[in-house]
Known about the structure:
The chain is α/β, with parallel strands linked by helices and 254 residues long. It is built from 11 helices and 10 strands.
Amino acid sequence: xxxxxxxxxxxxPLLALSGVDAGYGAVQALHGVSLTxxxxxIVALIGANGAGKSTLLMTLCGNPPPWRGExxxxxxxxxxxxxxxxxxxxxxxxPEGRRVFAQMTVEENLAMGxxxxxxxxxxxxxxxxxxxxxxxxxxxxxxRERCRQRAGTLSGGEQQMLAIGRALxxxxxxxxxxxxxxxxxxxxxxxxxxxxxxxxQEGTTLFLVEQNANQALQLANRAYVLVNGRITLxxxxxxxxxxxxxxxxxxxxx
Length: 254
């Protein structure tokens, strides 16, 4: 098994969280979270259900905003920015449960994703849209076949492809993925994760939240373990995959 290795540390991370607290109402979900994601990496965040993983991704998108701490993207402080401005910086989010627009066609869903592209990266007219579509269709040929089909009639795996493709239409520098393997058959999970490797090879950085720790750690250069809203462990994906504590807690002790 060829596991990815951690990349050399750059001077300025693409994403850096420092001492971030966040939550909903009076309920605190994140406690002093600090982590980094370097450009070109795949970084995984693993943890049990309810650990705060999805809240962390939502906080990165500005909803909920952090209570304390700092979030920087490519050196720029984005702690207090609203969601639409964060997206325009080059951050795209694939939410848990996919959340495609069920009554729209595949092509219409992808066109919606293009609206979040940074102004300088949008290009003009039909040609820019065609180029963006071709990239998505090359990664997910099934979507080309289903182009005129309503998203709500797709299989779960096809909807996950569409959700990822929709996010890629914005040409993000950083792609945030929340539980991309959720509810999918093992063969489809393998296909999705293989495509994620291709996406990184094409220049997009990935920050991945995943309950399927085995798949996530095999994919990731580095990973963090989140327990009750706190980072408790970090290391290379291969290192954590071999860790007795991680194997006992998240891999069934195998």
